[in-house]
Please model this.
Amino acid sequence: MDFGKFWDKYGLYVALLFMFAMMISYSIEWLRVGVGKALDSVFAPLVETFGIPFFILIVILSAATGLYSSIIQKYTIDYERMNEVQERMKGFQKEYREALLSKDEKKIKKMDTKKDRMMKEQLELSQQQFKPMAYILVLTVPIFFWLLYRLSQLPNETITLPYQAGAISLTAPMFWILPAWIVWYMLCSITVSQVIRKALNIGGI
Model:
């Protein structure tokens, strides 16, 4: 079987299935704790031997997440084609709007035929953007499992976030059910990702 053709045809479904499996694995305690314990032998010395504060460790791990996510996306998404399709779509939308305003039935009919082709290209791009998530999750989910495991051993770790009055426990909820450590992780990862994308000249998703 040609794996390339298989991935082109079914890659989106495989990625979605894998993403679903990763989310389900979060609810399986023995799996979550087992992965966390396994990684603890690798990451624990950063806390216990080198004394790195936990909130700084989150910065390091989230930066790593931003780095490998950006690199994976750079080599799995055709940004040049994506930009070309987006530019064509903008031109098409402008032309289609003008045809509607002018009530040119012949042109509108022609544009409707072209619209189906443009929508198909947009769908293909959307599918392409989902596929890297499988690779990213297989690296990110174990890190999250370790952070959860380690935080259960350090229940009194606190952090002072921007616009936050005073220190807050890393496990305390901040936005709805999101704990402070996840909010901090996301803020750091997004910030680092933007810097890396600029450096690697990677387009936005």
